[in-house]
Amino acid sequence: MDGVLIDSEPAHKLAKERAFAKFGIVLPEAVYERYKGRPDETMMNEVARSIPGRKLDVDELLRIKHSEFEAIEQIAVPIEGAKALVNWAKSRFQVALQPLRPQEIGRLLFPCSVWQIRLISQWTHRDFLVPSQTRKFSSP
Fold first, then answer.
1. For residue 10, which of 27, 68, 116, 123 sits 20 to 30 Å off, Cα-Cα?
2. pLDDT > 70: what percent of the chain?
3. pTM for the model
4. Range of 98's domain?
5. Would 140 be classed as within a structural domain?
6. What confidence tens digit (pLDDT) does each residue in 24-61 have?
7. Through-space distance between the first and last CA atoms of the chain, rounded to whole angstroms
8. Is residue 40 domain-resident?
9. Does 19 fall in a domain?
10. SS3 sequence of the chain
11. Are residues 50 and 89 in the same domain?
12. Dihedral through CA 13, CA 15, CA 16, CA 22, nearest 10?
């Protein structure tokens, strides 16, 4: 969903900025642009290695980033046309969602963020989620 139906990039960037700030690090905008859309683990590992004289705990950076993201994820919004696309698809097909991270399934089904509610509130009991571990091929 993320990046296809939801524009969460501003929330991810802000969460990363906050995580690095906890370590007293301010990164140039170009660094965030270079890693836009890439996994957090990739960015955190590469950036941590690139800062001379600092040994950053990447696991702690990731934990803080994820915590910060959960606190602000409501600023993520559906991409323009996403609702119309989902409604069009629903009128022709059974809709399935595949969250990238398995832990998102619980949040999608139960206590949802604002942006998730805006989308999934349109779906019925016939609609379902497919955990990413069950797929054999990458997402398009």
1. 123
2. 65
3. 0.67
4. 77-134
5. no
6. 999 999 999 999 989 999 999 999 999 988 889 999 99
7. 11
8. yes
9. yes
10. CECCCEECHHHHHHHHHHHHHCCCCCCCHHHHHHCCCCCHHHHHHHHHHHCCCCCCCHHHHHHHHHHHHHHHHHHCEECCCHHHHHHHHHCCCCCEECCCCCCHHHHHHCCCCHHHHHHHCCCCCCCEECCHHHCCCCCC
11. no
12. 150
The residue with greater pLDDT, 25 or 107, is 25
CA distance 101 to 114: 18
| Pair 72, 65: CB distance under 8 Å | no
Residue listed under structure tokens 């955190």 = 44
Residues in the chain: 140
Residue type, 108: L
Give the model's pLDDT for residue 88: 84
Q: What is the pLDDT of residue 96?
A: 64
Same domain, 11 and 71: yes
Tokens standing for residue 88 = 């069009």
Structural domains of the chain, count: 2
Tokens of 54: 């600092």
